[in-house]
Automatic annotation (TrEMBL):
Domain of life: Bacteria
Pfam families named in the record: TENA_THI-4
NCBIfam families: salvage_TenA
GO-annotated cellular components: cytosol
Catalytic residues (UniProt): E214
Protein name: Aminopyrimidine aminohydrolase
Taxonomic lineage of the native organism: Bacteria, Bacillati, Bacillota, Bacilli, Bacillales
GO biological process: thiamine biosynthetic process; thiamine diphosphate biosynthetic process
Reactions the enzyme catalyzes: 4-amino-5-aminomethyl-2-methylpyrimidine + H2O = 4-amino-5-hydroxymethyl-2-methylpyrimidine + NH4(+); thiamine + H2O = 5-(2-hydroxyethyl)-4-methylthiazole + 4-amino-5-hydroxymethyl-2-methylpyrimidine + H(+)
Pathway where this protein functions: Cofactor biosynthesis; thiamine diphosphate biosynthesis
Residue span(s) of domain Thiaminase-2/PQQC: 16-223
Gene source species: Pseudobacillus wudalianchiensis
Amino acid sequence: MKTSGIKVKFSERLYEKLQPIWRENHNHPFVRGIGDGTLDQQKFRFYMIQDYLYLIDYSKVFALGAVKANDVETMGKFASLLNETLNFEMSLHRQYAARFGISEEELEQAKPSPITLAYTHYMLHASQNGTLAELIAALLPCAWSYWEIGKELNEIPGASEHGLYGDWIKMYSSKEFGELATWCIDLLDEHTAEKSERELAKLEEIFLNTTRYEYMFWEMAYNEQMWPGEA
Ligand SMILES: Cc1ncc(CO)c(N)n1
């Protein structure tokens, strides 16, 4: 039996599915507040600390990617992503922390909120127990959704020049960050080209779960949500 010759890239299929969640991200008061500069600084401070903790575990997913990769080129890419996250992206957080009077030590010793913990543990679980494709499906929404948000906010006149939030917008709309996101998208497409529908369905579920966690992270930050009974 002949089937249609046109094969949709897996990332294109995911792009369709993630639309409703991304729309919620872009409309979220936290994201809008970064864009128009009205976000409460206290909420941003809370977010920065939680995001730093998040990125520590996210970096470990890249390290696991290097372990699971089957060729030197992919290993090298994961090594670059690990380096970029620890030494480029996270330096943004360290700079913001310094502006808020938070030491690096305090940053690392902060406690993760329930959502931070749930999201990072879900990603680490999928990465440790799954295939390389599952690992990439788990990590992709992070880079991809931030790049989209960064680009969108960068379109707002003056937003990237804002005294506090401008640097955040510059980071996530930057060419370097975009390359990181694009590389993850391409890698997922490469690793899913030959997969069965059953495997793709599993990857889609993982991808959509971390996409949902991205939304929940904005919500958590906006509400400065810690454990019940804790400030
Ligand atoms: C929660 C979260 N998702 C994505 C990114 C982008 O790396 C980030 N810094 N934090």
